[in-house]
Each structure stands twice: as C-alpha cells, then as structure tokens.
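Retro notes, item 3 of 5
We never archived the inputs for the flavin mononucleotide complex last cycle. Fixing that now. Sequence and ligand:
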Amino acid sequence: MSLKSLTYTSLARLDLDADDLENIHRSARDSNVIEGITGLLIFNGTHFLQIVEGAPHAIDDLVERLRRDPRHSAIEIREEREIEERCFPDWSMELVRVSGSYLEAKETISDRLPEAIAQPVRERLIRMTEAISGTVSL
Ligand SMILES: Cc1cc2nc3c(=O)[nH]c(=O)nc-3n(C[C@H](O)[C@H](O)[C@H](O)COP(=O)(O)O)c2cc1C
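Structure as it came back at the time:
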C-alpha cells in the first residue's frame, strides 16, 4: 500500500488554551485511528509542527480539514513525500509540548522521539523544532 508523509507548521490561534489543545489532541487521535493516520504534533505555545503519515487520500483529506480549522493559521507545508514505512507506527497522534526556548525544546523533542526513528528524520525534526522555537530558519 502506498504511504505518504506530510510535515507542516502553523501558527496557533492567539487565545488557544490548554483545553483547546486537549480537545485537538483527543479528537485527532480518535479520528486518526479510524483513518489509519499516525504521527506527531509538537506545540511550543505559539506554533504547531505536525507530521502525519498514512494513505495519500487520507492525508490529503486531513490537510483540507486542517486548512479550514480556525484554531490555527498560516499553514505551511514543509515536506511531503512518499514513504516505504511509517516513522511513528505506534502513535495515532502523539502530542509533545515543548518550550518556546529552542535549547529546551531541542532537549525535550530529542528525548521523546522513538529510538527506532531514522537518523535523518530525527535530525530534521530536531532542527524544525528548534526553528519554531527560536532562531534557526526553516
Ligand atoms: C494543530 C492541529 C492539528 C490537528 N491534527 C489533526 C489530526 O491529526 N487528525 C484529525 O483528524 N484532525 C486533526 N485536527 C482537527 C482538524 O483540523 C479538524 O477539525 C477535524 O479533522 C474535524 O474536521 P471537520 O470538522 O471538518 O470534520 C487538528 C487541528 C489542529 C488545529
């Protein structure tokens, strides 16, 4: 079966609170189980960085819904590619809350990424997490 991975960043609605985040996470997980989508959602208080992986049509449908969702804006697709296998097979959507400070954010995400993840993917994710939380450009 063909699989696609898509990574985007977005800007959270300014008044998004902990309950909103919890709602996003819970409903994302529930619906991703049904849709066969797995991935990782990183939130640093102002920005989201999300990787979603699954059947191409499921990912395309999700991106349409994400674009209509007023809880975030300025969605920018950072990477979209066909993959052989999933990087996050056990995560229907893992939420990782990181600091707005890039050094702390880097440490948190490094600790939380699965051991089995390929080195280039790990490095890219750490770099992008640093970027949403600080000084490095994407
Ligand atoms: C940052 C963020 C991440 C989200 N991640 C997912 C996700 O992984 N899966 C999902 O089904 N919905 C996710 N959502 C919710 C969708 O944008 C959308 O609200 C939901 O799929 C229901 O869409 P509908 O009301 O158009 O049916 C996310 C929303 C936000 C703001």
